Amino acid sequence: MKIISTLEALQQERVQLAKEQKSVGYVATMGFLHEGHQSLMKRSKAENDITVLSIFVNPLQFGAGEDFETYPRDAVRDQRIAEQEGVDIVFMPEAAAMYPGNSTIKLHVADRVDVLCGKSRPGHFDGVVTVLSKLFHLIQPNRAYFGLKDAQQVAVVQALVHDLNFPLEVVPVSTVREEDGLAKSSRNVYLSEQERQVAPAIYQALQKAKQSIQDGAKDPEKVASAVKEFINSQTSGRIDYVEILSYPALKPVKEIDARIIIAAAVYFDKARLIDNLVLEADGSIMDRF
Amino acid sequence: MKIISTLEALQQERVQLAKEQKSVGYVATMGFLHEGHQSLMKRSKAENDITVLSIFVNPLQFGAGEDFETYPRDAVRDQRIAEQEGVDIVFMPEAAAMYPGNSTIKLHVADRVDVLCGKSRPGHFDGVVTVLSKLFHLIQPNRAYFGLKDAQQVAVVQALVHDLNFPLEVVPVSTVREEDGLAKSSRNVYLSEQERQVAPAIYQALQKAKQSIQDGAKDPEKVASAVKEFINSQTSGRIDYVEILSYPALKPVKEIDARIIIAAAVYFDKARLIDNLVLEADGSIMDRF
């Protein structure tokens, strides 16, 4: 496994891979890897000659008062996990190399962001598409793998690739969960023991919503209300949102009659957890864009 | 020579070129080709295995009241010229294919645009970097050739490539001129016979400025004033601007002691002409970034 930290070394490596006609799969992360990331690496390994993992805590996607400084980091452990998963190249650039000065070019996400996490994180997705544009150009992947736990991010990245004709395929990958259903997340370490015990209620509430849609429920407001009630009754968390929207356009729906996302975000004492299900009209899980 | 009009056909062609390990040079144009464009094609031919020419009158870079509708077009003649120059692929997409709907992702040029042509064309360079991002992704050139007649465009494209780490080299190419010094331009056809006779005074004024810098002139205001006076005394045109700025940062300078651009824009009855010289501190012509 090669560990590359400069843009120049990565660019040289990429030229060599092109000469060798290797297909490249790419997993973009902010490190502190967990089994969610590992499932992305496994999928990339299965579908490409070479798998590149980037570890970069991107300052541009954190707002004022967010957890950029305290975002968990463990490079040694991350590299061990990447090695175990058979990753070929780990790219770990310095922030000063990625953002060497004021940028003349600004990217802005003008749609799909006034809902869900985008609503409470102004500018967050502008930072995401900026860093991904740079990383896509540096790594030039054939396929890029993103976890559906951040389903809004997947929708925004799909728009980025579509709108600007990036020559790559966005591959959404199902959320990986703990045995009790809690979605894997780097931020789960922030939960108190008591919070950790009740946190699976978020997923349980989404599962109940899925069941009600399979049983014929069509009214998004009623389904969302039931999700909120369940989370409120089972946890000490404060609900940020529970929303049902079309997917990936992320528009309000009057009736559940096409592909939708049911998404929830819940504040606990030191962590804000998100989870979601992307469902077809009949309540079955989305498999592929 | 292949003429390709759909994005899908171009993408297939590009995959094939990658398999054959061909280097690709790219010339982006809005058509109505002239010897300026031809010099870009010749340079690309000399430096790459394959030369791709795009012809696309990009609606996004025209403002309200500008000449999008009347911009001169002649596809048959353009294809003949491209064939003569040995171009391998002409890409002529439909606007509906390039812009299939409202874009979620917006690109904005936040610097280098409040001067020169950018000042009187708000949003123009946002349209330029948007279409070029798309075309760069579709064509994936190793080198992209741009004429220094649009020196501000070259500076903005260089910022685009630098800021977002596009894996390509921007190659600036010297302005091609008529025998009397007038810079070649698709818009020269709009000049009246009398205007055409006096228009070379713009270049003559820039040449005089170059000479005065070589003779030791350091004050940008004095040099610019002399350029304005000469153009006013020799033509019926109305000066839009004459500016001396650092290059490619395009910032005001107090003294001519590093690389600068002297640029002029002059309105005639039905055409606005631009011209410039990019000079080193000693008054010699810039050769390369």
Automatic annotation (TrEMBL), chains A, B:
Catalytic activity annotation: (R)-pantoate + beta-alanine + ATP = (R)-pantothenate + AMP + diphosphate + H(+)
MF terms in GO: ligase activity
Keywords annotated in UniProt: ATP-binding, Cytoplasm, Ligase, Nucleotide-binding, Pantothenate biosynthesis
Binding site residues for ATP: 30-37, 147-150, 176, 184-187
Main location: cytoplasm
Annotated TM spans: none
Active site: 37 (proton donor)
Amino acids binding (R)-pantoate: 61, 153
Compartment(s): Cytoplasm
Pathway: Cofactor biosynthesis; (R)-pantothenate biosynthesis; (R)-pantothenate from (R)-pantoate and beta-alanine: step 1/1
The protein's Enzyme Commission number: 6.3.2.1
NCBIfam families hit by this protein: panC
Protein name as it appears in the record: Pantothenate synthetase
Originating species: Terribacillus saccharophilus
Gene coding for it: panC
